[in-house]
Amino acid sequence: MLKITNLHASIDGKEILKGLNLEIGAGELHAIMGPNGSGKSTLGHVLAGRDGYEVTEGSIEFEGKDLEGMEPEERATAGLFLAFQYPVEIPGVNNAYFLRSALNAQRKARGEEEVDSMNFLKTVRETLGQLKMDDSLLKRAVNEGFSGGEKKRNEIVQMAVLQPKLAVLDETDSGLDIDALKLVAEGINRLRDPNRSFMVITHYQRLLEHITPDRVHVLSDGRIVETGGKELAHRLEAEGYAHLATEAAEA
Amino acid sequence: MSELAEKLAPQSSLAADDFSDLRENAQRALMQHGFPDLKTEAWKYTPIKLLEKREFQPAPASTSSLPELPFDGHVLHFDNGILNADETKLPDGIKLTPATREDFEGIAYGGREDAFAWLNLARFGQAWRIGIEGELDSPLVLAFTTSDDFAAAVHPRLFIDLADNARASLVETQSGGGEGMINAVTNIRVRQGAALDHVIQRGGGDTVRVARTRVDVVRDAEYRSYVLDTGARLGRQDLNVFLNEAGAVGEIDGTVVLDSRQHVDYHTSIEHCTGHTNSRESFRILADGTGVGVFNGRIHIHAEADDSHSDLNTANLLLGEMARINAKPELEIYSEDVTASHGATIGQLDDDALFYLRSRGLPTEEANRLLKYGFAAAPLEGLADETLRNWLLRELELVL
């Protein structure tokens, strides 16, 4: 599904990712953990194709296709989804209208038929219900006036509607209370599918209590420094990331 | 005398009618003061030099067609500036009559900043009075249209009077082509307990339009205007709202969308003449290409106006590198017992928002359009009449 080879990326000439290697197979869920400033969010933005994030070396292959040169909307259409750490408020743009436009833009670009508004609303209402969000959210502007938790859940709603092949969740668990965390985890688990993969970027292991990662990677100073199973997340929670700095310095 | 005065106000040819003395007086004032120039503060951004380049002809014989409106309304069609009243059927609540001298009482203008008002007073054709009583079942529509060969300078003059406790929606539309000028002056009275929603939709073409509206609001009466202006070669609008008695409410919400070769200038003022009066204003300009937008919003709270509240906000989007926007909120407060707030911003489309939309699969152009729409629609969302609101929002979509 995703194959990242020796990825180097910079912002404003400052190198953040320094030779990152990572492979995620179809149907797998990988967790990326690591201290602040290790490059976790940069990785998410580079995958989604954000302007200003320059890939200087290495490659990203998504389903065998090189992502280089693809616009963010082309990546989305190809099946890549980024749940934002800080979802953006868009005043005046109706949530339902936005989501349907996005879905239809993707379908149109893929040569599929557009969804009619009845079927669309049915799907969205169902998803909202599962995430215990009110229908009235559809009529409100995208993320405007949403609480932190609502914004994060709204990202999961979007993911469920857009049905990506690879979902990159950038600290979707941060700022959630335990109930919201469970709802988000359920939202992710409902979408687990042999043909869909997840990259879950997180600072803490508490989300990983509710979703089962196939692999856990530790990102430090722009590189994956350790890879393991679920137990690695527990160890990190107990030990913290402090030892990584020493190891990186020694390396 | 300037070339422009000669062109627009030749010494001969004043109409001889009941208003002759008013006309002569206005003509003299215009000659004395002249037209505003770049040193006239209130007109420094308005390039009226454009008028000097135009040759004005008598009104053409051809007629212009009404725009299709997706709602029922009582339509008064000002065809190339002329209202054909014979063809107009109106309900009992609307009385259309020729204006009388009484309607002009108390009208006073100043120096060269009022040149176009003087010009109108000297040159207006048939002035009309529209009286509104009770609650209108559907909007009164004033449709100003021009034909492509319209090259005249016309000066419509209207008096609109809402009786005590009347409720109405008034829709003013302006559309069509031609290189003429419409220089309209409108006086609106909203009497005790009455409420008027004034929807103004203007757009397109090479016609120069100058519009000056004065609204007088008295005890417990409410005036709300919603403006959607989608550009003109040259447009200048003055909207002055006077809150004269306690309980009076005045609100102005406006959106202006401009592209290349367009210049639109809105000067608004809200006068809190007495205590217990409330106002709110929200105005947005989006300028692309070489478009130029001007907004000057003045709030004036008089010394007598204790316990008054006012909020003025203008937000603006510069979309083209060559576009310009001049936005200025102006607060003059002489009473201490008031709350007044204001804000002004000029910015560009938000990169974060753009990336967010694109990351969901929206092509750049559509993401841009959606962001512009979201920004531009905000002032129009408060319009209570859903049909009119949806109509304005559709008109907005068409130009984004």
Structure description:
The complex is a heterodimer of chains A (251) and B (400). Chain A is of the alpha/beta class and 251 residues long. Chain A has eight helices and twelve strands. Chain A has a single domain (2-250), classed as Rossmann fold (3-Layer(aba) Sandwich). In chain A, helix 6 (178-191) links the parallel strand 9 and strand 10. In chain A, helix 2 (72-78) packs across helix 3, helix 4 packs across helix 5 and helix 5 runs parallel beside helix 6. The longest helix of chain A has 15 residues, at 95-109. Chain B has helices at 3-8, 20-33, 49-52, 101-104, 115-123, 351-359, 364-377, 386-399; strands at 74-79, 82-83, 94-98, 128-132, 140-146, 153-154, 157-162, 167-176, 181-190, 195-202, 208-217, 222-229, 234-243, 249-258, 263-272, 278-287, 292-301, 308-318, 324-333, 338-347. In chain B, the strands form two sheets. In chain B, strands 2-1-5-8-10-12-14-16-18-20 form a ten-stranded mixed β-sheet, covered by helices on one side. The interface between A and B is medium-sized, with 31 and 25 residues.
In short:
The complex is a heterodimer of chains A (251) and B (400). Chain A has 251 residues and is an alpha/beta fold. Chain A has helices at 40-48, 72-78, 95-109, 117-130, 148-162, 178-191, 230-239, 242-250, and strands at residues 2-11, 14-24, 29-33, 53-62, 65-66, 80-83, 90-94, 141-142, 166-170, 197-202, 215-220, 223-228.
